[in-house]
Structures are given as C-alpha cells and as structure tokens.
Amino acid sequence: MKRRWTLCEWLEEWFEVYKKPNLSANSLRNIGQVLRLYIPDELKGRKLTDISAHDVEKLLAAIPYPRSRVYARQVLFSAFDKAFKLDFVSRNIMLAVERVRYRKQHGKSLTMEEQRFFMERLETSRYKWLMLFYMLTGVRRTEALTLEWQDINPEERLIHIKGTKTEGSDREILLTEEVAEVLEGQRKQNDREKEARKRGRYHRAPESIVFPFAAQQVSREFKKLCPNHHLHELRHTYITRCAESGVNITVCQQLVGHATADMTLNVYTHVMDEFKRKEAAKFRLFPKL
C-alpha cells in the first residue's frame, strides 16, 4: 500500500535522504530556514495529495521578501518533483505555480580607490590574510573557510578548492607567489593564536583548517571594513581585475568556478564598455599632433 505522507513528513524525509548528504552546510541552512520560517504548520499537517498549487501560491504571497519567495518556490519545486518521481503524488503541482518575478541585483566591484582604502584598513585587521585571499583568488566565502592545508600543493603550485555550488566549482586554482605569501601569513597567525590559547579566546576550528573563522563573523567584519559593499563583491572585484588585466574569459571562468561563461561574460562586457567609453572620449575632430 502506497504511503500517504504529510507535507511535514515528506519534507523531513526529502531533506535527510536527498539533500543532507549532497549539499554544503550553507545550502542546508538556507533550505532549513525556508522549511522552518515560511511553511505554516497548518499546511505541513496536510497530506501531500491534498495540497494544491493555489495553496502554495498563497504561501508564497505571504512571504515578505521577493528573494525569499524565489528560494521557497525552488525548495518546494524540488521536494514535490522528487515525490512525483517516486510516485507519492500523481503530479508535481509546482508546475502550475507562477514563477516569482524578481530581478537579481548584481554586485558591484570595488573601484581602485575603494580597493586601496580597503587594503589600508586591512593592515590592523585579524582578517587581513583571509580578505586578501578572497581578492587574489575570487573564491566564494565558504570555499575559503573550508580550505585545508592538505588542499595546497606547493610542488605543483596548485590549490584544490572543494566547491559544491556548480559542476565546475570543484577546481584547481593557481598558487601564485602573492597567494603563497598570504597563506604563510595566515599560518604564522594561526601559530601565534595557538600559543596564546591560555591567555584568551582561541578559535575552535580544527588545526587542519587554513582560515579558522565563522562565516557570519567574516561577513560582519568585512562590512565594518568596507561598509558600501558585501563580502561576495570581492569575488566580483577579482573578476573585474581579471578583465582589466586582459585575462582570457574562459580561464577566468574556470578559476572562479562558474558553470557557464555567462556570469563571467557579464563582468567582462561591463569592463570593456567602460574601457571603450574612456577610449572614445579621447576623440577630437581636430586632434593636436
């Protein structure tokens, strides 16, 4: 006899069996927030087969933030799609749910002046080496915070980034001289903090971790250092500097772990447009020879 799951029972099963083993801690936390904050108990108590597309659209309409509505729809679509494939429901009702209209705001890179000011402020920050690592590699927040010393190959001059966001996010990046200096600076800082354990706080991360910081604290500290930007915009800054330096777009795409060249191309196009405007502004009908 086919089991008749309630929405709550199925979401818990779907999360534990199909999501927990395959996603990063950050992605799991985001899904957990959707399940906890945005799905009412009354709906969770209903049988899967008794929930309609209209019920879901009312749920989404009650969520105050467009971005959260987009993510909630994605989570429910995935859960109902798996239930349909396993024959727990006769159809995926999410196919009838209207897409949420939301225009994603693209991050902006630091200008050269902002970058210089930011790097000056870094000199007295405990997060100096981590922030420089973001700027020199373009890695995502979690990719840096999960980096282990064993992922660094000094002989091959490569660093293994254990990405999980896209197909190409698990990748190798270059261990340049600048990046090597940053890592050595962080190693010395970790050793100093280890020696100072008796005198005060000390990070709880395993010693195998290169940057032993909590994700939320890193974002907060960045905001203090650079109030007009978000931490992820250091990644955008790296891509912009690649474009300005003439780095091939395909190479940049592989270094930052984008699944397609589209996201990388958007930055390159913007930078090239700025360059063309500056060059075109040099035009004079009667140039001085």
Spans where pLDDT lies below 50 across 5 or more residues: none
User: What gross morphology would you assign?
Assistant: globular
Which bin fits the share of residues in helices?
A: 40-55%
CATH uppermost class of the largest domain: Mainly Alpha
The proportion of residues in beta strands is under 5%
Provide a count of the helices. 13
**Got a strand count?**
3
Trace the largest sheet across and list its strands. Answer: 1-2-3
Mean pLDDT: 86
Distance between the termini: 89 Å
SSE pattern, N- to C-terminal: HHHHHHHHEEEHHHHH
What is the fold-level CATH name, i.e. the topology of the largest domain? hpI Integrase, Chain A
Largest sheet, strands/sense/barrel: 3 strands, antiparallel
Gyration radius, rounded: 24 Å
- As an assembly, this protein is single chain
Name the features.
single chain, 289 residues, mainly alpha, DNA polymerase, domain 1, hpI Integrase, Chain A, 2 domains, three-stranded antiparallel sheet, 3 strands, 54% helix, globular
Walkthrough of the structure:
- The protein is mainly α and 289 residues long.
- The chain has 2 domains: 7-96, DNA polymerase, domain 1, CATH 1.10.150; 112-278, Orthogonal Bundle (hpI Integrase, Chain A), CATH 1.10.443.10.
- Helices cover 54% and strands 4% of the residues.
- The chain contains 13 helices and 3 strands, in the order H-H-H-H-H-H-H-H-E-E-E-H-H-H-H-H.
- The chain has helices at residues 7-19, 25-37, 41-44, 53-61, 66-85, 112-122, 128-137, 141-145, 177-195, 215-225, 233-245, 249-256, 261-280, and strands at 152-153, 158-162, 170-174.
- A 3-stranded antiparallel β-sheet has the order 1-2-3.
- A hairpin with a 4-residue loop joins strand 1 (152-153) and strand 2 (158-162).
- The longest helix has 20 residues, at 66-85.
- The chain starts with 6 loop residues before the first helix and ends in a 9-residue tail after the last helix.
- The mean pLDDT is 86.
